[in-house]
Write a structure and sequence with these properties.
Keywords: Activator, DNA-binding, Nucleus, Transcription, Transcription regulation
Organism: Oikopleura dioica
Number of strands: 9
GO molecular function, one term: double-stranded RNA binding
CATH topology of the largest domain: Poly(a)-polymerase, middle domain
Distance between the termini: 80 Å
Shape: globular
Number of domains: 2
Protein name: DZF domain-containing protein
CATH class of the largest domain: Mainly Alpha
Largest sheet: 5 strands, mixed
Radius of gyration: 29 Å
Order of helices and strands: HHHEHEHEEEHHHHEEHHHEE
Helix content: 25-40%
Subcellular location: Nucleus
Number of helices: 12
CATH architecture of the largest domain: Orthogonal Bundle
Length: 408
Amino acid sequence: MPGGRGRGNMRGNPNRLGPYNRGRGGGRGGHFSGPGRNSVFIPFAPFDLEHCAVQFPKVTSNEFDSQVGEMILERNKKITLSEEDSEIMSKIYEEISEVLGSFYTEPTEMSRLKVKHRSKQEDPQSIDDIRTVGAFANETLIDGVKELEMLITLRNPMKIDEFGEFSDKLTSALPTYTISSSEEFASIKVESLNGFRAHCFITCSGNKIKTSGESHLQKRIMYKNFDMGKRAKWFSENCVDPNIRLLARILSDFRVRFEGFRGMSQWAVELMAHYSMSSFDESGNQSIMPVPSALKRALMLLSSGFFLPGSAGIRDPAERDGRSVHQGFSKLDMDNICCAAQTLLRILMQGGGRKVFGLEDSAGLLDEMQVIDDVVIQPSIQCYVHVEEVTPDPPAVAEAPAPVKMEA
């Protein structure tokens, strides 16, 4: 019938826009979005040679991988945290934990009866858990870094007034340490006389964070600190192989030595090490790759734009919305990471591994031209240019002309 909903690909009046025009390229089932529909952004997956091992067989010799492996082990011995520094940090953690444990005591039976009919916000405050998080807990901390991270999980959300009192009590209980606090990040830094620091982050359980109000610390910061505990738990459960920690230390060393990698967070470095070391066969079975192959894979992925805008990257397992770990990086940092990885990969594959791993002088390695075996290697140049948006001045309002006097 004319104007009716006919059968087939074109339903109804083909000249009519709206829900009846659902043919090819129309709405549901078509190739393109119909009128008024929002497009869906689909991130791209950078080229990964490990996923195409059959189509691209290996051509480098095993001797090259063995040489790279020896250099990695040699560098790992130099950057691994010394036992002396590890013991000092452990003592600082134990001392702070003991002091924090004395701040709040478990409520007695009499106090429980007194607060039985009170609201949940009036429950007595206490500490549910104190643990180390970050690189020190994951055993990826490198030598020369004298800071450990601690997570203090309270029973109830902390009020802004309580945060200042909490910091003052910690200062009184630790007179030999320098204490500084930041309400903006809900954190307290404890620094010893010999330069070792403990960065304490405050949070509470996820369900209790929802109940916090304007008088409490910011929800956003409490959730951010809460995710630090989730990351430490995920790493301890999924990164059991010690070679993953070894590769994470090597990448952390790159992050310290080369300015181009400083835009990466420590958590991104650890996830990159886990991703690069993991290999899956056609049946979905996971295996651990050799460290030299995993390092080359990491540099290849970063060189191909793994952490560039629009890339799928690595999904952050601690984030509730499943976002990629590099979405918090600035565009300039993303560009610098890609350029640094491209230059290091060219130098490494040409035989300059000792400079790449810091076993020889590597000053200006990413900024100056390198000549290795008569081969000239130019460093990659950043392509991102930050353009500041200039707000145009409002147009000037023309003054009205003075009235003309009419003479008789």
